[in-house]
Predict the structure.
Amino acid sequence: MSIRAYAATEPKGKLEVFEYDPGELGADEVEIAVDYCGLCHSDLSMWSNDWGMTDYPIVPGHEVAGRVIEKGDLVTHLEVGQRVGLGWYSQSCQKCEQCLSGNQNLCPNNEQTIVGRHGGFAERVRANGLWATPIPDELDPASVGPLFCGGITVFSPIVISNVMPTDRVGVVGIGGLGHMALQFLNKWGCQVTAFSTSPDKEEHARRLGAHHFIHSKDDSALEKAIDSLDFLLVTVNVELDWQKYIAMLRPNGKLHLVGAAPNVSSEVFPLIMGQRSIGASPLGSPSTAGKMLEFSARHQIVPETETMPLSEVNEAMKRLHEESPAHRIVLKNDFE
């Protein structure tokens, strides 16, 4: 049975209705009926082949919320009809050292949902059962999709960096990634400082969970923040004055990047003398994604979203490209 989707046949081409035959369902796979799919900047990058690894036609979409409608014989932990989500990864080898240690997101042979295969701007999508993460009943399917990409991107560093509830933390950028990070870190118990180039976002940042706000173009405010943070999460994709931000770290402090800034650099002595470190991470494992959803359900953490019909996908892509809204656009499947 063919799958209907929206695909582009060339870089930045119009997304049009496209049908493809997914073949026989694998024994370790599930087929997911897509109810909602979030729109991410990575979809734009793949659509326009910014990273030089796009195969056309491409069906974008990797923030899926839906239901299992078919499963292979080896998938025993999910049931038909169960609500699940799918993010950037759709499969890992399950044999390498990283997979066997629970770090499947670091598998050198992992499969990415919209790289070399078709994603979630469709009526259905397939994935290895391990990467179809159950969605708690307490979470709204219309807004949960972005947690599977943007959400896990900022939640995973909290876990792998062993951020403590007593820590003083900072979040640089309060857009699509940062607005979720502020909520997570506040409910984690941390004292949270938001950094933004837009001073008019202070009220919004505080509403999301920031205890303090710093206008990042105000050098005097940055200077006052020296030696004040245990953990600093950078969600923006631009180069910063890295020495100023590293200077904000207390001894043993960590600067962690999840935004794809072109370069990061530092003088070595401030790192050595304060035992400070710079790190980065890609999304998270299925286990960490499950913890994130449980934590989100417990504290009612949800992305700020706007819903549009999937049939208006081209307008949604244009808005994301031109307006870069702080909230996430979620596309509702309206195939009949």
